Each structure stands twice: as C-alpha cells, then as structure tokens.
C-alpha cells in the first residue's frame, strides 16, 4: 500500500512538472504576457532547469526549444527512474532508443492531459464563475485549440460544444499515444 502511494506521488510530481514545462512552452508560443502572475509562477517553478538549457539551445521563433527539451529530459528521467524502481536495475543499452521514443510519447501524453484539464477547468469556470481572474489566461491558452473547432461547429444558439469536441479529440489522441508508447517499450 505504501509503495502504491509513493508511486502515485512520484507520478504526480513528474506529471505536474512536465505540464508546467509544457505550459511554459505554450505560453511562449502564444505570447502570453510573461508578467502575468500565473506565467510568473510557472517560470519560477521551471527556471532552474530551463535556464541552463537556454544557454545551450536558444528559442527559435515561436518555439521555446529549451522548455520542450527540458520537458523531454524530465520525461526521460521519469521513465528511467520508473524502470529502475520496477526492475531494480539499469535498462539495457538496446532499450535506450525505445526509451527516447517513449519519453517523447510521454511528453505528448502530458500535453494532451494539459489540454483536457485546461478545457475542463475553463468550461466549469465559465458556468460557475466566468469572471474568475484566471479565465483570461485559460481563454488565451485554449483559444488556439477551440477556435478552429468553433469555426466548423454549427451555432447552437449560445451552446458551445467545441470544448466537448476538443475533449473527445484529446481522449482519442491519448489512446493512440498510449498504444504507441506500449509498442515502443515492448522491446
């Protein structure tokens, strides 16, 4: 029971840190104001890892390569640590390439989890507290994903089903990523 609880905490810590790195990269891409208190929290949380990488790999255009690379490295450490805890040994050399691919798929899974949670939180807050201080940030983060769906979806008289469509698409994408992750690790 204790090992299950510790494993859960381990998973959550890596998931939340990976998501923070993805939020940082996404905020950079959509030019979210860096002095926003929510942006500042993410920057402070992730600076210790991103800044050293930024000295070696600068951002390119709208792509925050240092944050994405930091997220990929975090996923790699997460998978290797999980492997070591479960097996009690380091992975074999031939497992390195599958681990690199699986860590990339883990980043995709974290990104899809982020999409789901941002969409759910925004939808719930739009019903219970549309004036919440975080709503403009949530709107800015989700608009690039929801707006194309809104252009395709018919207008249902004030009922916006685009979050539901995005949630379904994200869940389907997570299933596909999970399938590829299992295939990558089946070495």
From TrEMBL:
Transmembrane region(s): 6-27, 65-86, 92-112, 124-146, 166-186
Record-level GO cellular component terms: membrane
UniProt entry keywords in alphabetical sequence: Membrane, Transmembrane, Transmembrane helix
Keyword DNA repair: no
Keyword Transmembrane helix found: yes
The organism's place on the tree of life at top rank: Bacteria
Pfam families assigned: CCB3_YggT
Name of this protein: YggT family protein
